[in-house]
């Protein structure tokens, strides 16, 4: 029977753990950034009125999310979870091409509360996305009622640029 010393066993175990940890870190996805991560733009939403939308952007590889919100766009009635489907168009790399973000993920929204939802799109490194000033920049279907919003100006502080 071969005897090992406790110190040698602890050192070998620590080295093995360190190697596994280094491998796990090497395999973890790299963090990707979009800049800026928040921008605002004015939208005219017809019967819901005009609103300054705040657009929050996030990126994970080629998948990006946009979460628009505004205290000025409120639900006239309670909206059940996932009852909003929406499409948001962006001008891509200075136009004329556009990129579309879509989604049907929304929390339950009490009457009088701000409308919230998350949209998903695909981006490539270097994509620059800004408010699309054409008709139907943002289309929302809320419990079957279609609402069309038009961007009135470009985003501030500027377009989203994706890594």
Helix/strand/pairing category: mainly beta
Strand line-up of the largest beta sheet: 2-3-4-7-6-5-9-10
How would you name the oligomeric state of the polypeptide chains in this document? single chain
- Beta content comes to 35-45%
Rg result:
23 Å
Q: Write down the overall mean pLDDT.
A: 85
State the total count of DSSP E strands: 11
Q: Tally the helices: what do you get?
A: 1
H/E series: HEEEEEEEEEEE
Distance between the termini: 58 Å
Share of helix, binned: 10-25%
Largest sheet: 8 strands, antiparallel, barrel
Low-confidence stretches: 7-30
Describe the global form: globular
Written description of the protein model:
The chain has 163 residues and is mainly β. The chain is 13% helix and 42% strand. The protein contains one helix and eleven strands. The chain has an eight-stranded antiparallel barrel with strand order 2-3-4-7-6-5-9-10. Strand 3 (50-60) and strand 4 (63-69) form a beta hairpin. The N and C termini lie far apart (58 Å).
Chart the SSEs and their pairings.
Layout: H1 6-27, E1 34-35, E2 38-44, E3 50-60, E4 63-69, E5 84-92, E6 98-105, E7 118-122, E8 128-131, E9 138-142, E10 145-151, E11 160-162
Antiparallel strand pairs: 1-11, 2-3, 2-10, 3-4, 4-7, 5-6, 5-8, 5-9, 6-7, 8-11, 9-10
Give structural attributes.
8-stranded antiparallel beta barrel; single chain; mainly beta; 163 residues
Please outline what is shown here.
The chain is mainly beta. It is built from 1 helix and 11 strands, in the order H-E-E-E-E-E-E-E-E-E-E-E.
């Amino acid at each position: 029977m071969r005897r090992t010393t406790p110190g040698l066993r602890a050192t070998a175990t620590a080295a093995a753990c360190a190697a596994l940890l280094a491998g796990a870190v090497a395999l973890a996805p790299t963090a990707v950034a979009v800049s800026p991560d928040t921008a605002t733009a004015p939208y005219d939403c017809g019967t819901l009125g005009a609103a300054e939308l705040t657009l929050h952007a996030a990126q994970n590889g080629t998948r990006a999310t946009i979460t628009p919100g505004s205290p000025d766009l409120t639900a006239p009635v309670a909206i059940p979870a996932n009852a909003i489907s929406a499409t948001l168009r962006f001008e891509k790399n200075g136009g004329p091409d556009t990129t579309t973000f879509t989604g049907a993920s929304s929390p339950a929204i009490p009457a009088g509360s701000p409308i919230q939802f998350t949209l998903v799109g695909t981006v490539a490194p270097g994509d620059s996305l800004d408010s699309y000033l054409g008709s139907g920049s943002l289309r929302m279907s809320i419990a079957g009622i279609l609402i069309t919003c038009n961007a009135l100006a470009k985003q501030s502080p500027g377009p989203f640029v994706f890594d």
